[in-house]
Design brief:
By secondary structure, the chain is of the alpha+beta class. Helix content is 42%, strand content 20%. Strands 1-2-4-3 form a four-stranded antiparallel β-sheet, with helices on one face. Helix 2 runs antiparallel to helix 3. The N and C termini lie far apart (27 Å). 22% of the residues are buried. The mean pLDDT is 97. The structure holds ligand H2B. The site of ligand H2B has 6 residues, from loops. Its EC number is 4.2.1.96. Keywords: Lyase. It comes from Taklimakanibacter albus. This is 4a-hydroxytetrahydrobiopterin dehydratase.
């Protein structure tokens, strides 16, 4: 789970994660979520936080009002692993609730 993905596996994973893209100059993925209000944005962050704790895998994120910008990477692997793909998928599911 914490082994770096091959470039092929990384590309395949991104195809299944709409709105996610590679960060420039760093092996990480990013997405910007926009909600109707701060309450919805913060509710999203609270639900994601509980999932992140369960996975022991934590997002880098930035919130202003209704926008949440997320960067995912596995720090211990200094790159992308299955854990990032898994958390990204969970975040997309939670965002649609
Ligand atoms: C000790 C603990 O398991 C590690 O520090 C975990 C916690 N959450 C983490 N989150 C992320 N995104 N990358 C990590 O390498 C990481 N490591």
């Amino acid at each position: 789970m914490r082994d770096r993905l091959s470039p092929e596996a990384r590309a395949a994973a991104l195809e299944n994660l709409p709105g996610w893209s590679l960060v420039e100059g760093r092996e990480a993925i990013t997405k910007s979520y926009k909600f109707k209000s701060f309450s919805e944005a913060f509710g999203f962050m609270a639900r994601v936080a509980l999932e992140a704790e369960k996975l022991d895998h934590h997002p880098e994120w930035f919130n202003v009002y209704n926008r949440v910008e997320v960067v995912l990477a596995t720090h211990s692997a200094q790159g992308l692993t299955e854990l990032d793909v898994k958390l990204a998928g969970k975040m997309d599911l939670i965002a649609k609730l």
